[in-house]
């Protein structure tokens, strides 16, 4: 037991690396007859590497995890570098869970030099215009960023993405959403793919940039995968010089060959000819990436409920790109309700009203009749909340946030005013209504405050305080007295 005690003391003082295990055993051979017998018999199991205990105590790993992640760190003789790395990560805002996520995927990060490696990379990302929270998010979701060299990797990749996307702002915006952004090789993927598309396929670079801005994965795929994609697109007979060809490539990249074939068979089963199918694909290449079940339900609704014939849908195939629950069904029901009430006398094709933006549809169709037909707001609320009608009355989760930015502040206010008071006061539901305001940007006051009827409201960060402030605000909108706290 004396040997174990001395080892523990040496670990804590970082002196253990100065002693070799064999010499340490010799030194302690006569300290205990029990230890001596165990050493001679060879039954004493070796002590685990000191980094096992370190990973448990400093990072919060379980014993089994610590034993696993300590193996690449067996060469360490002190905790000097790991201490510096952990302190630096914590100073940058990476919490315990984030640190464990980073270290578990690449334990050797604990061997990095903070001054010459980590700190310059963090500063480089800050200088680009990223916030600390952006950097922390990126590293937690793609810690390979920390292994990149600034001048050999970061800068060339940044310049290439700026060239394709047109601005650094767009690159950084995508980087925040797509953490793999700087991971793929420019020499092995980006350059070869761009050269193939422009030189061999004859697609202008500006057209390639259009798809890269919205779907950067496309240009970062393996070159052999891109060539196979081109071959699949050629089979559909759309010329490479056509503007829709590049969007066809994106659609094929997002959908498996099985899905594409299933969608083709499905549309033909509704009576589409081969010519109608190819014409529709040329108009709306995204049809191929829809799920067959979603496509089937849209076709059935447009035929059985709206009354369109398959050939008409083929000529107006953009209808199939819209969401059935969020747009097609709600708008059809709104128009049908207005017709039954005798309030809609204008002649207009449903296909036109489906294409209208959310704001225009609300301003032109819903809001003018909200007093006479209040049910219209209920129909649209269901659509905006992204729920099928059967779930309209169920409790909303904090993950279903209302995307009211596209609706404008006036529409936001209409929805808030018509929201049930019990929903406003329910702590489980208030997140949706609160996000409605925060994302809606009412009166341009900001993300954490808004001003209605000269009454300024600030939303704190603690959930309960945020809830109370929201209740005050929502009650004000609904003409109710303030809640007493």
From TrEMBL:
Instruction: Spell out the Pfam families in the cross-references.
Output: mTERF
Q: Does the keyword Cytoplasm apply?
A: no
Gene Ontology BP terms: DNA-templated transcription termination
Q: Which GO terms describe its molecular function?
A: nucleic acid binding
Keyword annotations of the record: Transcription, Transcription regulation, Transcription termination, Transit peptide
Similarity field? Belongs to the mTERF family.
What is this protein's name?
mTERF family protein
Organism taxonomic ancestry: Eukaryota, Viridiplantae, Streptophyta, Embryophyta, Tracheophyta
């Amino acid at each position: 037991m004396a040997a174990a005690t001395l080892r523990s003391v040496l670990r804590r003082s970082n002196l253990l690396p100065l002693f070799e295990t064999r010499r340490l055993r010799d030194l302690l051979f006569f300290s205990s007859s029990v230890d001596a017998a165990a050493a001679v018999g060879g039954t004493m199991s070796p002590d685990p590497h000191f980094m096992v205990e370190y990973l448990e105590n400093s990072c919060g790993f379980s014993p089994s995890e610590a034993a696993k992640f300590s193996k690449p760190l067996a060469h360490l003789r002190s905790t000097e570098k790991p201490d510096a790395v952990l302190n630096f990560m914590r100073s940058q805002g990476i919490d315990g869970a984030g640190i464990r996520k980073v270290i578990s995927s690449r334990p050797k990060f604990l061997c990095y030099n903070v001054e010459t490696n980590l700190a310059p990379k963090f500063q480089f990302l800050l200088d680009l215009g990223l916030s600390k929270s952006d950097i922390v998010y990126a590293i937690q979701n793609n810690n390979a960023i920390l292994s990149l060299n600034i001048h050999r990797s970061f800068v060339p990749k940044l310049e290439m993405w700026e060239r394709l996307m047109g601005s650094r702002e767009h690159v950084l915006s995508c980087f925040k959403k797509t953490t793999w952004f700087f991971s793929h090789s420019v020499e092995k993927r980006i350059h070869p793919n761009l050269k193939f598309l422009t030189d061999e396929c004859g697609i202008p670079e500006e057209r390639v940039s259009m798809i890269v801005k919205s779907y950067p994965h496309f240009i970062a795929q393996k070159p052999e995968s891109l060539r196979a994609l081109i071959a699949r697109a050629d089979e559909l007979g759309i010329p490479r010089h056509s503007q829709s060809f590049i969007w066809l490539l994106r659609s094929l990249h997002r959908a498996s060959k099985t899905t594409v074939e299933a969608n083709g068979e499905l549309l033909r089963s509704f009576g589409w000819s081969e010519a109608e199918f190819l014409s529709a694909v040329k108009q709306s290449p995204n049809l191929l990436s829809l799920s067959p079940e979603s496509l089937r339900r849209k076709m059935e609704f447009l035929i059985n409920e709206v009354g369109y014939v398959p050939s008409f849908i083929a000529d107006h195939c953009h209808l199939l790109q819209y969401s059935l629950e969020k747009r097609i069904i709600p708008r059809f029901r709104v128009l049908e309700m207005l017709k039954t009430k005798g309030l809609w006398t204008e002649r207009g094709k449903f296909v036109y009203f489906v294409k209208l933006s959310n704001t225009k549809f609300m301003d032109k169709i819903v809001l003018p009749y909200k007093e006479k037909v209040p049910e219209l707001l209920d129909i649209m609320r269901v659509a905006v909340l992204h729920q099928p009608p059967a779930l309209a009355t169920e409790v909303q989760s904090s993950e279903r946030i209302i995307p009211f930015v596209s609706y404008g502040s006036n529409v936001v206010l209409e929805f808030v005013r018509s929201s049930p008071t019990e929903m406003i006061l329910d702590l489980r539901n208030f997140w949706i209504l609160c996000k409605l305001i925060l994302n809606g940007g009412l009166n341009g006051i900001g993300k954490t405050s808004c001003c209605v009827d000269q009454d300024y409201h600030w939303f704190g960060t603690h959930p309960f305080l945020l809830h109370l402030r929201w209740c005050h605000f929502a009650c004000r909108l609904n003409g109710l007295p303030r809640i007493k706290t």
